[in-house]
Specification:
Dna Ligase, domain 1; alpha/beta; D-amino Acid Aminotransferase, Chain A, domain 1; 21% strand; 3 domains; 16 helices; Rossmann fold; 4-stranded parallel sheet; 7-stranded mixed sheet
Amino acid sequence: MNKIKIKSTLPPVVVTGLCTGALDIIRSLKNMGIEITAIDTDLSQPSAHTKYATKIKCDDLVDDNKFISALVNIAKQFKEKPVLFLTNDKYVLSVSRNRALLSQHYMFNLPEEEVIETLTDKAKFSLFAQEHNLPIPLTYIINNAEEASPIAAILQYPCVIKPIYKTSCWTSYYKANKAFKVYSEYELLKKVHETYLVMNIPVIIQEWIEGDESEIYFTLLYYDLEANLRSSFTGRKLLQWLPEVGNTCIAESVNNEKILEESRVLFDKIKFRGFASLEYKKDVITNTFKIIEPTVGRINLQSSIAMGQNINMPLQYYCDLAKIEYPQCQINKQQIFWIREQSLVCLAREPKRLMKLPMKIWIKILLGKKVFTLFSFRDPLPFIYFLRETVVAVLKTLFYSKRHHLSTPVS
């Protein structure tokens, strides 16, 4: 492990992971003169080529013991406690469960461990939501494959299957699929049995909420160390990849006081601290919003859209922990569009899906203010490496397709 050069008098920062979410954090702090270190097992991914952070390659961040050990060893290279940023649910759970040890080496802002466990586990959150009369889709918890049959017989289809928590095994096997929409009892039982056969983890089954991807809204919030709401933002998705049950591809800023108030009520009630987000879907039949899932302890995938309006939640988090004044600036109410280039390339293979958005929306996106997950004039390498990967992948596909065509005998 390389030694870290300390340059700044401000507390340093350690970011776990070098995904696009980590890139948002790193770029949001770039003007503060802070020494930023990011750790990951893969330093070849496009976002790892940012110029604003020192990168450290770790052999294993999946194993909890090795992850915690790596964090402790890195912290010992600094003269003072670094501010710790987390970028996925696994890291949030690991740090929360080891907070007594890690608080000796890092500064971080998380709610109580019980809150983390409840809001990260989809089954526990479902029970919590029912107890507190929160608007969620009808949900069934499946603890083993045998429990699925009687529930599958009474469900209305289509419905959605999700893991209670997304593990590395799930990601490895199902790739970008964070959930599955199924259309029949047979399809549901097949998917549930496949999930248990491969991963042996519980799943939840939820009713399908009618409405396009553009009916999915989200709130982003940051609560300080005293559980006071410091900043908030609301937006909605316009396109997703994968279709219907995937991650955001394009989003826009919208003012939605209803879901913001519902989010505040929930997080205020439990004395929340740190980063929080709620995803909602508007049921076009009942004209009501239902909570799809919370994200806590880390910034959300599309959090940089808030920075487009000068709402810099990572910087607020840092200033809160470093006990320095947050540099106030006027909030920009201009409409912002957020674009994830990786997903847009995938969608480009399906022109019909791109045309689901009305032409007037595409014109707004083209002419409006945009923020990207990778593209930045001041930090161009992540996007350049992404372009290189994309071009290589396209050329390989064309080459193998042509090779297969030439090797196919003519009848």
